[in-house]
DNA sequence: ACTCCGATGGCACTTGGTGTCAACATGCCT
DNA sequence: AGGCATGTTGACACCAAGTGCCATCGGAGT
């Protein structure tokens, strides 16, 4: 049981590491799955038992962020202004992407992954797909939080879309500046722009 | 010259029509490109001379909407509030998707295409990709319109993202209600939510 | 009539992705 | 210890998406 699980995770890590290495080095299209598999010491068939596609190796890291953000949003105090609650929820993802290991070499690898995603159409498309799922989750949580009807209220999906637009803009700026700009400051800037609409549901001042 | 062009367009239309028909009927994954090609009376190889991928047949219709929206945005009077200018720019796309032929059988085909896109992951991903391009174009135009620096100002990409969130939300509601809800009213609703942030750049009242 | 050019079709080929099966390890039960 | 169940793996065959290449055909201009 524990033995099998550990082995599975080991192989998955090996595979992901080999893939990230090769993809970052040679570009997405120039690497075949066979290459990745042999680099990790397994067969092509085994690769597909761990990842559903080539894009998945890169993007799967970000999969869990949706539920995580939703949980964080749900954990914010009920009276908190939406702009603040959403900022905190999104911050978790930004930190996960940018801040990993705070001030070490690890964030550099994260930077390169983000740049790879943003610069590869196929990866970008998958990334956008994930974001669309995140948006639905965030929207559902917002509707619940504000007692709105998810089927008719326009606010929840729009607010979630705004929050993810901020996420996206911050990520782009951060990766475009090679990590030089501060993600937290960027995110605050973005939510300052969004806040007037985000907080207008209940009233302009809270 | 004219002869060759007409023939090209004829073949492209034939291909697109056959593809849309088959895809809507059997589902995206259940249709091979060979099928589409023979249904249009050409070879698989010729299909790829007209469309870059299976997804492209469906999505290519929407390709031009980016420049169109940008042009419309550029054509709005300089002093118009961003929320209004963007609403009008986005409206063009919504109308193109939903309203085609105003009140005829044509909008029903458009509805089915939208439902196909929104319900097929592969198509959704491509659609989102296009939207990302639109956003960049809209952002560039907004920056120019407002005299903002595209490299540092957060407002343009965020505003463009908001506008496209509205587009997306409207499209989803419209397709989810099988075309029953009025796209124009939905869009107005959406921009009413967004307006406080959209119009806050220059001042809360204009 | 000759020639040039674009469109086409056929074909081989690479790659992503899946189904199937036999081999092998692990662990549990008696 | 022997036997059985479960789970992982690799090999192989297979399908479908794309792409490169070349021979061919038909139309336009000379």
TrEMBL record, chains A, B:
Pfam families per record: TetR_C_14, TetR_N
Positions of transmembrane segments: none
Keyword annotations from UniProtKB, A to Z: DNA-binding, Transcription, Transcription regulation
The UniProt record lists the keyword Transcription: yes
DNA-binding region range list: 32-51
PROSITE patterns: HTH_TETR_1 (PS01081), HTH_TETR_2 (PS50977)
Record-annotated HTH tetR-type domain positions: 9-69
Name of the featured protein: TetR family transcriptional regulator
Source organism per UniProt: Kitasatospora aburaviensis
